[in-house]
Write the structure tokens for this entry.
Amino acid sequence: MNLVQQLINGLVLGSGYALIAIGWTVLLGAARLVNFAHGQLYMLGAFLAWSVMAKLGVNYFVAVPIAVLALGLLGVVLQAMMLRLVMQQNLTSLMIVTLGFGYVFQGGAARIFGGDPERFISPLQGTNIRFGELWFTWQDVLTLVCTLLLFGGLWLVLNRTRLGALVRSVAEDPKLAQLFGINAARVYIGVFVFECAAVALGAGLVAPRSPILASMGFDEVILTFVVVVLGGIGSVGGSLLAGFGLGMFTALFGALVSPAYTTAAAFALLLAVLVARPRGLGAR
Amino acid sequence: MNAIATPAALILAALGYFVPSVAGGAPAVYAACTTIAILAVMAYGADLILSYLGEVSLGHTIFWAAGGYAASMLAVNAGWNGWQTAGAAIVVALVLAGALGLATLRTREFVFSLVTYAAAVVAMEVAFNWSFLGGSDGIVGVPPLQLTVFGKGISGAGNDTLWPVAWALLMLTLLFIQRFRQSRLGTSALMVQMNPDLAQALGVDSRAVRFLVFVASAPISALAGWLYAYQRAYVGPDMFESYFLVLMLTAIVVVGRRLLLGPLIGTALIIVQQSFFSIGGDGDKIILGTVLAAILLLWPSGLIGLWNVLRRPPANVRSPSAPAHRR
């Protein structure tokens, strides 16, 4: 095993984990909403980009933004349906509803796109950069850059703008925020749309690494949980660090122990953290 | 009240036994009825958590699969009979639920759901990769169920043979749930859910209540998995599939939570649709998921809530003496 190569792999994996998790972090922090359809939204993002490329013959760099836009629109529709439960903060029902949505997406995608694995190809996936024995692809570089830009931009928006102040005030106390004339419903929709669009971007950048299947998405959800809980629920900077930490952990675990059990190992890590600190590492 | 309710329940239960023969006795009918009974028992395990603790356990597929795996492995490799494998299924479920219950002792709401969900996905990964559990092939060739006392009893694998077992298991489960609802643990669980402060003030240890209910719920789903293994003569990682999870939750919420017969009626509706009015596996997924989401979005109290809405007289003719609408 080449340690430096594994660290590079960890960085690559970690940027993907962080990117897939970012929407969920914001959603959980601002709306206390858990979206169990997250993995299926990842699947949909990948399949939409793939089908736009295959059916319309457009370029990868056009297809991914189309998928991001489409999932953003889907987010508006989904959140509009859930709005009453969200305003009541009926979290138990909401969790089950999103699970139902995910199941519909899974069945619908299998019906529309078929049950076979498809190859969603990025032109950058095959372009390697080599330094002696070490290597990575331009796709990995693109993913890392997009992740850092998105996290940086998000941090600025949340902490330095009026929009961010609105989101933070609704997260803090939705009823009080409404008394001050803040339209909490609009904030919830915005946050949910961001989640859907962000996971579509994550799928567009990460999914080309392996064949895509209508039944995929479960591992992505688990890894997202781990990132969000390790990073401290709702913490943007924390989830970036947790994403990279988890990436390093799975790269080293896959190389040293067994690649088949990496999700199980990530989950064991999550359990250990939860038993020690039920509200996550980032919680004070 | 009880003087009428108990005999009525017994008569209803006895009539339930003859449903497949009254419905024609065709093999497909026996298969559907047996499957409904098995999956309803599976759902009752999760019902204990969702209806009485108010938490969403997404990990009950673990206990369901554990029951199936325990039965299959011991029947295939050690030649154990049905009583022995059922005992083993219960023990395995209790151990797993104890471990998961301890790990989630301090978690609430979505963290509890996330951890149980993650546990189920990981358990599936382990079952898929670990050759001890048969790996991706699962365990094939489960022998016919042997459930005899002094040489008399059930021996067979057909749905018509398994139906009496499935029916008896369902009746035992209903009896257990009914007793649980009236028990100290059941009422404490409801109090912890509805008014945790009151529960604490009355000296109820909410963590102990949550742990005990969680552990008590696991053998129910496990026994369903135990019988399912004999019905299919095979278990595999597909027992962890989200189909069973979504089915459990839909069965619980579709009629209405905290109703004794709710999960049974819910399961029956779903399986009748899938057995006799199926539009293909993926189409059935869309139906099941849509029903689950739509019920909670439109009539959060389930079909029973819809019934109350329809039954409620229009506002202008409501008589002042009408009983208040119960929520």
